[in-house]
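Please check the following for our workbook:

***
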Amino acid sequence: MHQTPTPLSDPFNARARLALRDGSVDYFRLDASGAGDLKRLPNTVKILLENVLRNAGNGPIVEADVRALASWTPGGAAEADVPFLPARVLLQDFTGVPAVVDLAAMRDAMAELGGDPARINPLVPADLVIDHSVQVDLYGSPRAFAFNVEREYERNGERYQLLRWAQTAFRDLSVVPPGTGIVHQVNLEFLATVVQRRDEEAGTVAFPDTLVGTDSHTTMINGLGVLGYGVGGIEAEAVLLGQPLYGPMPRVLGVRLSGELPLGGTATDLVLVVTEMLRRKGVVGAFVEFAGDGLAGLSLADRATISNMSPEFGATATLFPIDHETLAYLRLTGRDEDLVDLVERYAKEQALWREPGAGPEFGEALELDLSTVPPSLAGPRRPQDRVGLDELKLNFRRNYPDGLQLAKGGLPNEGHVPDSSDVEAASVESFPASDAPGYTTRQDPADQPSAAHAGQADAGEESASDREQLERSGRYPEVSIRMDGQEVALRTGSVAIAAITSCTNTSNPTVMVGAGLLARKALERGLRRPAHVKTSLAPGSRAVTRYLAAADLMAPLEELGFGLVGYGCTTCIGNSGPLDQPIADAVEKHGLIVAAVLSGNRNFEGRIHPLARASYLASPPLVVAFALAGVVDIDLTSEPLGHDGDGRPVYLRDLWPTADEIREVIGASLSPEVFRETYASVFDGDDRWRALPIPEGDRYAWDPASTYVARPSFLEALPATPEPVGEIEGARVLAWLGDSVTTDHISPAGSIPAWSPAGQWLQQKGVSPTDFNSYGSRRGHHEVMARGTFGNIRLRNRLAGDKEGPYTRHLPSGEETFIYDAAERYAAEGTPLIVLAGREYGSGSSRDWAAKGPRLLGVRAVLAESFERIHRSNLVGMGILPLEYLPGENADSLRLTGLEHFDIVGLAAGITPQMAVTVRASENGAERTFRAVARLDSAVEVDYYRHTGILPAVLRRLAHAQG
């Protein structure tokens, strides 16, 4: 248990005792907050209220914060910054590596300040699950899992060595090694407690389990009644260092459920209906809560599936109440009976327990009758575009009219291999802590698939009568390719990838068992998967393969090609691996529009694979069905999947398992022992993990030859006390950007072009372009990330004219150059830099390097019309000043040219929250002066800025306390 000091105060006299079966614990009574009838409050508000009540008087949280939240009313217009101190932090390896790098660098800086480096530890417990790096290189083979893990270690050994060291070097940081599971499923099945106990000097205190995570689908845990959501890396580091997060007064929207799902209905069908409904309603930035008597028919896994897709419908989190189903799931997954008792007693005492009948009051509420949920998919480009199973054929034809004839001489949209900016543009509205895929699934000769079916391409010739053939037959014309010495037909509409993947669905035993039963029935009828379908099974937990094997369902899945390829995100985040070369050649030569069908949560064009333009989200049983059908332009409600050995048609309805069949299998194969065995050694790892060399000592031994991990320069040569805040004088504009500039424009996550500054640097270090990996995988190395800042190939910088990409003009020379190269020249000249921008600067994914990168380039301030909320705080966290034009003003109205020298005046006299400053823009002897607001919104942010960032502020505080 995590040991903390005794709280400094209890201003509301809220601390009380709660009797348990194994003794008693302290807790903080919500009824002492002055909120009145607790049953009227949504659970989201109650959990946040308990958080400020318990922490009031301890550090930055004050009594006024409690009173503000206790006055919450449905639909109220009260404005207040609500502080939140999560109980723990959840990390994955893509976003967790930079956090670990920063902690390691803080230890170095602490030693240089004369302090004890071992004092730098997470002040809040953290778990890091390595799940984002495994790729489907080999499939359809019993060797696939071992082969893919081996390749994963080859690609990521440097990063994993750092994490292996962190596992032993830091207190309260646990690392779940590769090949174990997906972060959110491990959290659901093992890490989460619903109610935590914490030992303090005054006794043990119980409180709601809460968390933030560096992945948008952290929201999955809300299905268990645990409030958690995704944040960016800098916010996560702030929490790790004991700092609260701040957000607006919560807007809570209710969804009241009634009825039951139809026979054969799945949680996937339900979540796609919910996603469509809530996207239409508009819930961006809101908390959603489910209520109503229909909850009684939803399993905990069903609830988690819905909560998982909160980012897809735009909500901050989607919380379910605690009830008997919650307790049943805790028991099923092997949690201790004392914990189950604590959860039940605490939830009932604090009015967090769901009672039948009336629920909480919501400002807004929607109704959903579960019996109306139809069999559904979503696609072909967005998760909110639900498609009825019976409408899929028409949906595909309508979305891809250019697929009605084969292209002559190349792709209909030749050159359209989507880059991360395409994906980011599609997702900018609502995914606050996610990343565009890394696109490591290149179709390079050096990275061809090692599959049992790879063969030679024989793509055939285009027919002049293709369109006439289609119009006569209603079918897309086929291209013949050779695989394994056999002729295989491929066409627009063919399924290229069918993947049972993602914690969204693999956490749900009902749909996983359903997929296995459907596979068994299909084999009994003699059906086989077409050779052009790349199939894979990548569950989010080893518990899944345990219970599938116990039910004798792994064998039929493997026989249809759904063998285990890894325990990780894989295809869901774009790590689908290369297609077999004959298929890739035919798609590229003939412009075929092939499809991916997956049990994931996102399907933006090109995300799953650059050559699969269409992607449909579906339940695991439907993934198996479409793998058998081999095409997506089919109506599986009326057309057969295939034919048996006697030539008789086999329909989906013939194979679909009944609810009784699924329940029988689950009852016989799923038990608490499955989960206890799965997680008994969850932190140990395999032989590869244990064999990684671990640097000894409290400080990490940085390898100067590494191109993945390095000590960041922004924590080097840190003075013991901050220098006085001065004016910003003589600054030049590095980039003049427009509206809705996303964090992916500022710091791309995708592929690294060989011609870019980052690509050139890697090649100078001996890295071949085929081994570049992605920006996302190299976030632990500031030299790569600084060179990638403003590196998006779709960036539009007005200083570069009409030219797109990472370019600017150096001033006053006027020379066009890379933004990074210009920043280097300005640094050598001693010139500070600013960025000009329009509205919503920093929208999209919350990405810490979108603030770290500009800081390393020498950017001192960003002057914009408005900022995305999290990115603004990230800028402050890195010591960059967010400046906002006065209402009605912008660069154009002030007749700025971007060629001026800029002075920002008023900082040296003393900074206060949201103070006005004077900006002087001088060019050729002319001067324009205007006012702007320094968006340092609190005294805490002023302090961060004074220290040039949150990390130096915390570091100096710890060093001073030790001294």
About this structure: The CA atoms of residues 113 and 720 lie 6 Å apart. The first helix runs from residue 43 to 55.
